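Support request, please re-run this one:
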Amino acid sequence: MPLSPTDDIVGPASRAGVGVGAFNVVQLEHAEAIVTGAEAAGRPVILQISENTVRYHGSLPPIGHATLAVARAARVPVAVHLDHAQSTDLVHEAVRLGFTSVMFDASTLPYDKNLAATREVTDHCRAQGVWVEAELGEVGGKDGAHAPGVRTDPAEARDFVAATGVDALAVAVGSSHAMTTRDAVLDFALITELRASVGVALVLHGSSGVSDADLAHAVTAGMTKVNVSTHLNKEFTRAVRTHLGAHPETVDPRKYLGPARDAVATEVAHLLTVLHGGLG
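Re-run finished. Output below.
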């Protein structure tokens, strides 16, 4: 199946009022696991590569090309997305490689500078047919900062989307990145207000800290793209620890990375079902 444009996945989901899972790739096993889980669930999925992961690998092409190859071999629609890019050079490189969407994150800048930088990125990407996500109202948790009180203002969000021309907006509604417990308290009324204020898909970052029930509620309230990373990494690491604990003599990484890959695939299939309205 050819690589899917992100809008072909997010657009129909937004109109149908269902969620789309966007899961972060750290290494090849993550990409394989995410696609396997999506195939098991029979749902489309978005594979995300963050700027932090690019830094870990040393450059974008190795992990980028591998992820694109996994996406193209999938039996369900799969898009490949650049997540939390603060570098415009990295955005341009992702577009050249064939990514179908980017998330440009200038949320730490003052509003006017965020708007100007995002508009420039949107103009470049739109000319290449690439979908753009931006962030307004900084989502906490990056690099250890936790800012649960930050919220996106609906009127400001409406003006920002109109001025930048972005296709989706990541908003701060109570979640935080890198949470290892699933007890975030979301502001569902704010989600609904934001959905009514802007004409583009809303994106929930920091979704690893949100329970299944609240993920389903967030989608009902108006979220469409739901980003998950830490929660899957917990499943991956748990499976590795379990295998090595039972088999401490293991030296072949395939022996423990295989079960870790399977654990992530199982959780991806579950989460995609939850986001599509499949919660009990």
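The chain is about 50% helix and 15% strand. Residues 33 and 265 are 4 Å apart (CA to CA).
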